[in-house]
From TrEMBL:
GO cellular component assignments: plasma membrane
Principal location class: membrane
UniProt subcellular location: Cell membrane
Protein name per the record: Carbon starvation protein
Lipid biosynthesis as UniProt keyword: no
Domain called CstA N-terminal: residue spans: 2-377, 387-527
Protein's organism: Natrarchaeobaculum sulfurireducens
Signal peptide: none
Pfam families on file: CstA (PF02554)
Length: 604
């Protein structure tokens, strides 16, 4: 995988940079529209940290390990290793490049430039629905990990506090960048030790958790969602959503930039350290279990319809490709690239490292997740089924790090903090992007209703509340595939936008680089969403009398909502694809016809 990614960055990444004609003499939107709020030029390592943390989140951890537990580790590795440099990294790079050529505007705005206001609005509504799914799913993932590892809860709170102070250090006090990096990165790693000494839980934790300092007495069943998830997990969902709401409306320098920069060190250490530890532990053994060498405990391939961890048949095609929602290709990245990153890019040439290289790094995170879960033996559905994949990432990562002599518990807490830090990043970045989309949909407010909709507190609050309703009515296993399908279909639309941009730019621009991935992803995602809507929700739930008899009102509404949402996403996507195809063919015909007279005049 490392070889494929290196060849991809050096060869294909360089080709793409020339293909879109990156030029440092052009003024980037960050400089042209600098406002101290959203358009803020950032040093390359700081912006790489923000971008990497925002796109990585928890999805490249949750998706690959879930897929490996269902179908085996070989299909998961192959999809990440091949799809990432050929589709995912291309997607991220093209989204970032097209945005900086359109004043740092979103992908929705860009496609609207070519296919009209109706197409733009349809795309923005599509992306807005995906954002709600992102916030819902990631808030649940945060809560599951903090419930399983109370030590990581303490470390996460300290990490957020350190990021706030680091923002003041850099942007208000103008203190040295390198010195601040040393002090605050050391503080982030020290927070793991503090978490080990003072693990906290809001209510009595469940599942994998050891003893913790419980902050609230009682069973907490009054907390919304407690009956479904347990009081501690349900309360952490509320805390995560509240944090995301506050963080998403703050200026980017207050928390977003410094937090993402600090969290990138967690990711670099977690990914690099784990991959190196896998090599050491495989050949020299670990300090756990009598210096036994690391070995893969998961089967390479469990079968087309999944193994023992799933209660119902789950076909590898198309579900594998939407289960690994990140790590290979992710539409959410296009929203980050064109929503926040493009507004902070210092030079055009930085797009290669941040766009293409950042996605390759996420592929390495997915590989790390696969390695971590592969060394933990999970052979049946007795421990919460595939939901066990989430805490097992930290457990497996901790076991791998014992190759360096790091105690198992310290390694587990560190890996849990790595997981949570990126989930939190995706949460508030997602809400911020949702706010941008709503503002673009409203445009210049001309009525009282539009003024309210454009208000950042109101629209961010409504998005947060919608995500809360969705997460409170469904399990992670039910929400995740829907998020994955919607996310991958968004990736197809972002690549389609880049294809339309190229077609309108020059008639000499070849379209296979972006067009071929569009076709592949549309086939995969539409098939996946149809399976989820028709088989998973309609056939196995709504039309099943036994299921309906046991389901409550909330479960019935949730299943119907997920089915309707899947069909709505398919409809919006196909309508956008139709409009984009019409523009693409017209643009090429127009460019060719306008060049023909020039050729004729030369001949004369």
């Amino acid at each position: 995988m490392l070889v494929l990614f290196t060849v991809g960055y050096v060869g294909y990444g360089r080709y793409l940079s020339r293909f879109v004609e990156l030029d440092n003499s052009r003024e980037t939107p960050a400089h042209k529209y600098q406002d101290g709020q959203e358009y803020v030029p950032a040093k390359k390592p700081v912006l790489l940290g923000h971008h990497f943390s925002s796109i990585a989140g928890g999805a490249p951890i949750a998706g690959p390990i879930t897929a490996a537990l269902i179908w085996g580790w070989v299909p998961a590795v192959l999809w990440v290793a091949i799809g990432n440099p050929l589709m995912g990294a291309v997607h991220d790079f093209m989204a970032l490049s097209s945005s900086i050529r359109h004043e740092g505007k979103s992908i929705g705005y860009i496609i609207g430039e070519y296919i009209g206001e109706r197409g733009k609005n349809m795309f923005l509504w599509f992306a807005f629905l995906v954002i709600i799914l992102v916030v819902a799913v990631f808030s649940l993932l945060v809560a599951i990990i903090l419930d399983a590892y109370p030590q990581a809860a303490t470390a996460s709170l300290l990490y957020i506090g350190l990021a706030l102070v680091f923002g003041v250090w850099l942007y208000q006090l103008n203190l040295p960048f390198l010195a601040g990096t040393g002090v605050f990165v050391a503080g982030v790693f020290a927070s793991v030790w503090v978490g080990l000494q003072f693990p906290i839980a809001l209510f009595e934790p469940s599942g994998f958790a050891d003893e913790a300092i419980v902050l609230f007495s009682g069973d907490g069943m009054w907390v919304p969602g407690a009956a479904l998830f347990g009081a501690n997990t349900a309360t952490w969902i509320l805390v995560a959503l509240g944090y995301a709401f506050v963080a998403s409306i703050l200026p980017v320098w207050v928390l977003l930039q410094p937090r993402d920069y600090l969290s990138s060190f967690l990711l670099y250490t977690g990914v690099g350290g784990t991959l190196l530890a896998v090599i050491v532990g495989t050949f020299l053994g670990t300090t756990q279990g009598g210096s036994e060498a690391l070995s893969i405990q998961l089967p390479a391939y469990t079968g087309f319809f999944g193994g023992d961890l799933v209660a119902v048949a789950m076909p590898l095609f198309p579900l594998l490709f939407i289960t690994i929602a990140c790590g290979t290709i992710s539409g959410f990245h296009s929203l980050v690239s064109s929503g926040t990153t493009a507004k902070q890019l210092n030079r055009e040439s930085d797009a290669r490292l941040i766009g293409y290289g950042g996605m390759l790094a996420e592929g390495l995170l997915a590989a790390t997740a696969l390695a971590a879960v592969s060394v933990i033996a999970v052979t049946d559905a007795g421990v919460d089924g595939i939901a066990a994949a989430l805490p097992n990432f930290a457990e497996g990562g901790g076991l791998i790090l014992t190759s360096f002599g790091i105690p198992l518990l310290i390694g587990e807490v560190f890996m849990a903090l790595v997981f949570v830090s990126f989930l939190l990043t995706s949460l508030d970045t997602g809400l911020r992007l949702g706010r941008y989309m709503m503002e673009e949909l409203v445009g210049t407010p001309e009525s009282g209703v539009e003024n309210v909709a454009a208000n950042k507190y109101v629209n961010t609050g409504l998005t947060t509340f919608a995500a809360f309703l969705l997460v409170s009515s469904g399990q992670w296993e039910e929400l995740w595939p829907l998020f994955g399908g919607a996310n991958q279909l968004l990736a197809a639309l972002a690549l389609l936008t880049a294809t339309v941009w190229l077609a309108n730019w020059k008639d000499t621009k070849q379209l296979l680089t972006t067009g071929l991935p569009v076709a592949v992803m549309v086939i995969i995602t539409v098939s996946g969403l149809l399976w989820l809507a028709i088989v998973e929700n309609l056939q196995r739930q709504l039309l099943d009398a036994a299921w309906r008899a046991e389901a409550g009102t909330v479960e019935l509404i949730s299943s119907g909502l997920r089915m309707v949402l899947a069909f709505a996403l398919i409809f919006l996507a196909l309508a956008i694809i139709k409009m984009a195809y019409e523009n693409l063919t017209e643009a090429r015909d127009s460019l060719i016809s306008t060049e023909e007279p020039a050729v004729g005049s030369d001949d004369d």
